[in-house]
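Reopening this one. Same input as before:
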Amino acid sequence: MKFAPVAWHLRWCLVERAKVKPIVVLGLLTLMASGCVSSLQFQTRQSRPFDFSRDTFSFSNQTVYAYDHDPATGRLVVRHKDPPPDYTRHCFVVCRSAAQFFQYARFVPALPLADDATYGRLVRQVVSRSLSSWPMDSERIVIPGYPSLREFSRANERLLKAECGSALHSYVQRGHWRSMFWFSREQQAGMAKQLKDACGLNRPAIVHIVCYPRRSFIHHAILVYAVVEAEGTIRFTAYDPNNVEEPIVLTFDCRRRTFSLPPTDKFQGGNIAIYQIYHSWCY
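Same output, byte for byte:
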């Protein structure tokens, strides 16, 4: 995404070239280590887990470019798609909206279908809600005529693409500032525990993926919703908004304290850094 080089330049200016006073850098680092934490310890377990077949959109976020792997060199070859896709750079929007529907909507297929104006109003109500709090079941917004988000989005794709948010929401997400700074292994171990706790409470967590500190940025968002622990690893199941066919697996190596992803059509696979977003006032 286009904000990636900007983030790298800001980080380079702040930390490597010391263009600002040390007290400013210290203040930013203190902010990172303080108030922006999860409040899961004060939350209760939700009644059901996130279900990939029900709680995801029927359409995907599309990449601007096609990514091919050169078998001879292993390098990633990037080229423009032809024809260009019509729904791109919405990975943060799709993840956020899926989480909001899971959190705030209740689908009632027994009720009669509504018109586009009504559905548009209901969608706007859902996606205007904060992900940092959870409603009572009685406070959920009723979506009539459909059994799930997957079916609702299949029948109302254009409406949902228009109402859930523009690509600008991906560029200006409030947590992007964190991608400018170092990700320690201790911080990543803490993130693994935070995600494990969230999954244990049936509370999907949106994470921002970066390939820090490499220049080959992958700025992307996925929605983590299930966890399985094995010997030496923690495997998180996640919804990748670029893939509507099946979930992906995010793996945490407990010994090395690093996250990794398998190869995708956009990413060669390997180690990444992550942090949770949309869960506090500064993320």
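So the earlier flakiness isn't reproducible anymore. For the record, Residues 1-20 have pLDDT under 50 and may be disordered.
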